[in-house]
Amino acid sequence: MGRVPNFFKTLAKAPAALRASVAYYSSLADGVLNEKEREAIAIAVSAVNACKYCVSAHASRAMDFGATPEDIADFAEGRAADPRMGGILMFARAVALTNGKVGEGDFWAANAVGLSENELIEIIGWVGFFTFANMFADALDIDVDYPAFHKALIGAESFEL
């Protein structure tokens, strides 16, 4: 990366919050979901929460793992060409949209693409982590230091290029 993003510069002003965030992230990163899947979840959750900082940051990171601008637009809507990724994103989006009150159909759809209980639990964990990140970035109005992505990705009229 070569630089410290504004998100972490701001988070570092509260060392306990920084340590907690790094511990949470690091623990989940040791799980079974790969980096592209995690970045896609970040985009989907950040789009639900209309967080321009996080959509832009994670869109940039997803491109590092081979995602195209079209993939990113799909991720923001909870879709993907790959059925497994699509299932991951539909479930993550359902968790984010319902504050965790997902329905039986959400579990059925996730199971239909082969997602395990372990993977579903990790997805829920990532939704929680990225929701915190969205709230943090928005509450403190952190300046976006990544290439901006179009407002259509997050459905927010206030999103500026």
Description:
The chain is 64% helix and 0% strand. With 161 residues, the protein is mainly α.
Quick summary:
The protein is an all-alpha fold and 161 residues long.
How do the SSEs run, as a string of H and E?
HHHHHHHH
Q: List segments where confidence is low: pLDDT < 50 over at least 5 consecutive residues.
A: 156-161
How would you describe the shape?
globular
Helical residue percent? 55-70%
Mean pLDDT comes to 91
Supply the CATH class: Mainly Alpha
Q: Into how many domains do the coordinates divide?
A: 1
* Proportion of strand residues: under 5%
Distance between the termini: 23 Å
How many runs of DSSP E, i.e. beta strands? Answer: 0
Report the major sheet. none
CATH architecture, by name, is Up-down Bundle
Helical segment count: 8
Q: What is the CATH topology descriptor?
A: AhpD-like
Q: Which class best fits the helix and strand makeup? A: mainly alpha
Looking at this structure, what is the CATH superfamily? AhpD-like
Question: What Rg, in angstroms, do the CA atoms define?
Answer: 15 Å
Spell out the blueprint of helices and strands.
Layout: H1 6-11, H2 15-29, H3 35-48, H4 52-64, H5 69-76, H6 83-97, H7 104-112, H8 117-139
Helix pairs in contact: 2-8, 3-4, 3-6, 3-8, 6-7, 6-8
For the structure shown, list the relevant keywords:
161 residues; mainly alpha; AhpD-like
